[in-house]
């Protein structure tokens, strides 16, 4: 009898964490490394949020809370959905977890039986398929190429649905591509879903506030209210308020699902950090200037990176609508050799050679289910990004 489960053998370690770890190891060896693999804002958490956390500690709010969130935080989340998305929830339809990832994982653990299918548009966040597998389900990936703007089409969704389909995952704006669905594109998908009442929608809205130019964010339950009882809307404070380490995510959905997810959480982590919950409440209820200011910075960085990469021989970088990632194609370099002699036979070889020869860490596209691309996070300073783009250009120019 094997000690480790067969299910675990089907799960891959996170490639983004693996690349970040490898970059850290090289840096520890004295190498000059630029890490563009982690999706983490480089700003400090806003002062009023940090002050709320300190006040919570001083007030003694350091004990267990309700399993899936304090009543006051749930009320703040209800108010956020009403204010920003036009969605009407009550606290019994809200759950709070240790980051957005736990909300997704709880939902899958609470709903998936062996063989249930989950439609995952590719490119996807690396954790989606493996969370489905851990819960006993089967991820059904649907390729959404650059020619489609990295978006799922209504026709592709219709073709992917089977009698075993239980969930569709949507992420807009997307990690890794930054692609977002406008209202017409979202409406086309919700129209298909109305014809398939067994399919639920798990929408990952974590990058809701990081949108650029004239793009306007929308979420499925807002676009099609008739789907509201079939939608779990996940969001959190990590990206919008530079609170990645505070580990607070939340979700809104039908009450029976929320209760089931709380049961899963009660037997795993129990409540999220009490102090972090008070900080998240301050983030949602407090001034929102930080979002506007950080969005302007990220848009400037996006434009810097897109222009720089499109000046690199062999690369083609679309302009994303949101998040803080670009997902350029490196198809023009396939079959060439780097200046250091590495054969560039795909995006993984490209990423490895780029790190070895220039010290720039990116994540290869196969990790996100769609090649030949790679992901860059531009959640770092303009000076670092300019240096990284210059190194990437020199690398591309050296390929022959």
TrEMBL record:
<dbReference type="Pfam" id="PF00155">
    <property type="entry name" value="Aminotran_1_2"/>
</dbReference>
<keyword id="KW-0663">Pyridoxal phosphate</keyword>
<dbReference type="InterPro" id="IPR050596">
    <property type="entry name" value="AspAT/PAT-like"/>
</dbReference>
<dbReference type="GO" id="GO:0006520">
    <property type="term" value="P:amino acid metabolic process"/>
</dbReference>
<dbReference type="InterPro" id="IPR015422">
    <property type="entry name" value="PyrdxlP-dep_Trfase_small"/>
</dbReference>
<dbReference type="GO" id="GO:0030170">
    <property type="term" value="F:pyridoxal phosphate binding"/>
</dbReference>
<dbReference type="InterPro" id="IPR015421">
    <property type="entry name" value="PyrdxlP-dep_Trfase_major"/>
</dbReference>
<keyword id="KW-0808">Transferase</keyword>
<comment type="similarity">
    <text>Belongs to the class-I pyridoxal-phosphate-dependent aminotransferase family.</text>
</comment>
<dbReference type="InterPro" id="IPR004838">
    <property type="entry name" value="NHTrfase_class1_PyrdxlP-BS"/>
</dbReference>
<dbReference type="InterPro" id="IPR015424">
    <property type="entry name" value="PyrdxlP-dep_Trfase"/>
</dbReference>
<dbReference type="GO" id="GO:0004069">
    <property type="term" value="F:L-aspartate:2-oxoglutarate aminotransferase activity"/>
</dbReference>
<protein>
    <recommendedName>
        <fullName>Aminotransferase</fullName>
        <ecNumber>2.6.1.-</ecNumber>
    </recommendedName>
</protein>
<comment type="subunit">
    <text>Homodimer.</text>
</comment>
<keyword id="KW-0032">Aminotransferase</keyword>
<dbReference type="InterPro" id="IPR004839">
    <property type="entry name" value="Aminotransferase_I/II_large"/>
</dbReference>
<feature type="domain" description="Aminotransferase class I/classII large">
    <location>
        <begin position="32"/>
        <end position="392"/>
    </location>
</feature>
